[in-house]
Design goal:
The complex is a heterotetramer of chains A (120), B (123), C (101) and D (102). Chain B is 34% helix and 21% strand. Chain B is of the alpha/beta class and 123 residues long. In chain B, α1 (16-29) runs parallel beside α2. Chain D has a single domain, classed as DsrEFH-like (Hypothetical Protein Ychn, Chain: A). Chain D has helices spanning 16-23, 47-53, 63-68, 85-94; strands at residues 3-7, 29-32, 58-62, 81-83, 97-101. In chain D, α1 links the parallel β1 (3-7) and β2 (29-32). Chains B and D meet through α1 and β5 of B and α4 and β5 of D.
Chain lengths: 120, 123, 101, 102
């Protein structure tokens, strides 16, 4: 059976080159037609906030890049429901369709993978 | 067991690279295999050679370890390019400490598929 | 037409179809409709995602959008023998993709 | 598959330790290393949470990092165990997955 990857994103956007580099690593696995899931936790969920316009801060937009997750058949884009709630974010207003997982179900969900990678 | 190790931090900013180094030594001492040490994010800075000697220099320790155990130390090319450690004009490994080479995420994925365990040091 | 040290268009906003022909000329390629299809594809990709794929993803993205015949290294190498992703970005007036040597 | 969680930041500086404990599953291990070893202290604001989690998790402290920081065993929560780098490798062997928390 092919190995299932999960990438866990906990850092907010605009964390320097890290954002693009974490996406490169996720997509590298996806490019091999592997089963790849991404989990946004804690401040990582801020990546999914709609309406980000960092141009006036002199920063590059990252949200469009994240949309390539869908293009390359990343299997599941999951977020933790509590992480959204704590930040007053609504799942249906995010920039990508996501699967919401309750905090209590996170350990079992992660345990269903063969390779876990922290992306900061 | 077969390990893939990812080093994500510069040796000058955090302890994580040193921890990874200690872990690899212990894993080898316990009879495990290290398929690949992949340097990513600021971890590519482990391949920089300091311009002066004297301070404890992890890159020298990495070199010795790579030589002693014939380990494969790969820097992600785009992470290295972003930090000025690889040129954009050709495969130029000359600015790297001996023992390190330029490679890509494809090698990391490949090694992960063959490995029993994947560990990262420094997020 | 101003080029950078690696032969890429210095000012991407100055790109137009006529410049594309001249850029292609610098790498010895005469653009056919097959070339244009790939050039338009990568410009559209970059406009939408503001990010360039790596070589492997590039092939995969073409596969999804133009079909398996065109989404193959062999087909793309025939069109752009010096490295499809790098050369198509050069012709399309886009930045040099990271990771390309 | 069980997870080896690595926590390498001080609980006085970040919430990584608490966030990790909230997502660790029964049978997982949590290794406190580097500045994360401060999370093994007793009598601090977070200590009760760590002690409670030690019921269902294997919470382990990397001894060389503890020594480096001049902390002796007497100041730590009772239920935690200490390992060296070999013990760290054994933990990685026992748990197929690993996640880092910063």
């Amino acid at each position: 059976m092919p190995k299932r990857f999960v990438f866990v994103v906990r850092q907010p956007p605009y964390s320097g080159a890290r954002n693009a580099e974490m996406l490169d690593q996720i997509l590298a696995a996806a490019a091999f037609d592997l089963a790849v899931d991404v989990l946004f936790l804690d401040d990582g969920v801020w990546h999914l906030q709609s309406g980000q316009s960092p141009q006036n801060a002199g920063l590059r937009r990252f949200a469009p890049m994240l949309q390539t997750l869908e293009l390359y058949d990343v299997r599941e884009i999951a977020v933790e429901a509590e992480s959204l709630e704590e930040r007053a974010l609504a799942a249906e207003k995010l920039i990508l369709p996501v699967r919401c997982l309750a905090r209590i179900d996170i350990p079992d969900w992660i345990a269903g993978h063969e390779i876990a990678v922290s992306c900061g | 067991m077969k390990f893939v190790i990812q080093i994500n931090a510069s040796p000058r900013e955090a302890q994580a690279a040193n921890t990874g180094y200690q872990f690899i030594k212990a894993a080898l001492a316990n009879g495990h295999d290290i398929l690949l040490v992949f340097f990513y994010y600021d971890g590519v800075c482990n391949a920089q050679v300091p311009a002066f000697a004297g301070e404890d220099d992890l890159s020298a320790h990495w070199c010795a370890l790579a030589r002693a155990h014939a380990l494969d130390f790969v820097l992600c090319v785009s992470a290295a390019q972003r930090r000025g450690l690889a040129s954009c004009e050709g495969a130029d490994d000359r600015r790297l400490a001996p023992g390190f080479r330029i490679g890509g995420l494809g090698q990391w994925v490949d090694a992960c598929l063959k490995a029993d365990r994947i560990l990262a040091f420094g997020v | 037409m101003q080029l950078d040290r690696q032969g890429f268009l210095a000012d991407p906003s100055s790109w137009n179809e006529e410049l594309a022909e001249r850029l292609a000329d610098t790498i010895g390629i005469r653009l056919t409709e097959e070339h244009w299809e790939i050039v338009r594809f990568i410009r559209d990709y970059y406009r939408r995602y503001e990010y360039l794929p790596n070589a492997r993803l590039f092939v995969k993205a073409i596969q999804k959008s133009l079909g398996a015949d065109k989404g193959s290294s062999r087909y793309l190498h025939k069109l752009f023998p010096g490295g499809p992703l790098k050369q198509v970005c050069l012709v399309a007036g886009l930045p040099k993709p990271p990771g390309c040597l | 598959m069980s997870v080896l969680h690595l926590v390498n930041t001080s609980p006085f500086e970040t919430v990584a330790l608490i966030r990790c404990l909230e997502r660790a599953g029964e049978g997982d291990a949590v290794l406190l290393l580097e500045n994360g070893v401060y999370g093994a202290l007793s009598g601090c604001g977070f200590s009760a949470k760590v002690a409670a989690a030690a019921g269902s998790l294997d919470i382990v402290v990397l001894e060389p990092d503890l020594e480096a920081r001049g902390l002796d065993r007497a100041r730590l929560l009772q239920s935690l165990r200490l390992v060296g780098y070999s013990g760290f490798v054994e933990l990685a062997v026992r748990h197929p997955l690993s996640l880092s928390w910063t």
